[in-house]
Backbone:
């Protein structure tokens, strides 16, 4: 049975991508070379639900479910800023930029997506929603000294960038497929679902 590798996410505008590129460049200049696998800018999304291998007969069902979920949530604005590590700066595995949305609409959108695709065979995520944008992943072969340097570099940049942020209006959510190729993943938007109204309007 043919499948597509799919996920549901909010796509980023060019201003946010430019900001992320700048942060990546700053970190590339100070962390140990080759110790971090940096994510290509076109591969950075605010992921709401990773569906994985999706049979073709479910693709249209997911599109319909996403439209229903998005239609319940008013458009909103997210604030992007602050850098950090998962699980923490002492044991960094993932380097990220934070996403905040104080009204709760982003969290409600995540919950709506989860509940609408669950009946299609995609189990509800039990971990709490932690919105973020992944900049890079620490390589498994990185030495303990390199890992320590990465954590210290991210901590220093976080202090320097405290209070610096960009806002982005969110009016749609996308259903995306990713094709894994030797040169990297290629992303194609299969559908966009519109939220209610306009952000900030």
Residues:
């Amino acid at each position: 049975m043919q499948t597509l590798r799919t996920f549901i996410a909010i796509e980023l505008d060019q201003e946010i991508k430019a900001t992320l590129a700048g942060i990546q460049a700053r970190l590339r200049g100070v962390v140990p070379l080759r110790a971090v696998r940096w994510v290509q800018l076109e591969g950075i999304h605010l992921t709401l639900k990773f569906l994985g291998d999706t049979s073709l007969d479910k693709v249209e069902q997911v599109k319909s479910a996403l439209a229903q979920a998005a239609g319940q949530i008013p458009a909103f604005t997210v604030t992007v800023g602050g850098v950090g590590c998962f699980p923490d700066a002492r044991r960094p595995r993932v380097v990220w930029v934070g996403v905040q949305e104080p009204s709760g609409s982003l969290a409600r959108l995540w919950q709506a997506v989860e509940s609408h695709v669950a009946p299609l065979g995609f189990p509800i995520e039990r971990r709490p929603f932690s919105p973020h944008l992944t900049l890079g992943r620490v390589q498994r072969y990185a030495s303990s000294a390199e890992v320590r340097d990465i954590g210290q570099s991210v901590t220093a940049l976080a202090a320097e960038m405290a209070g610096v942020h960009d806002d982005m209006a969110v009016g749609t959510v996308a259903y995306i497929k990713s094709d894994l190729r030797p040169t990297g993943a290629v992303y194609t938007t299969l559908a966009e679902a519109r939220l209610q109204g306009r952000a900030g309007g």
Observations:
- The helical segments are 14-28, 56-70, 105-117, 144-160.
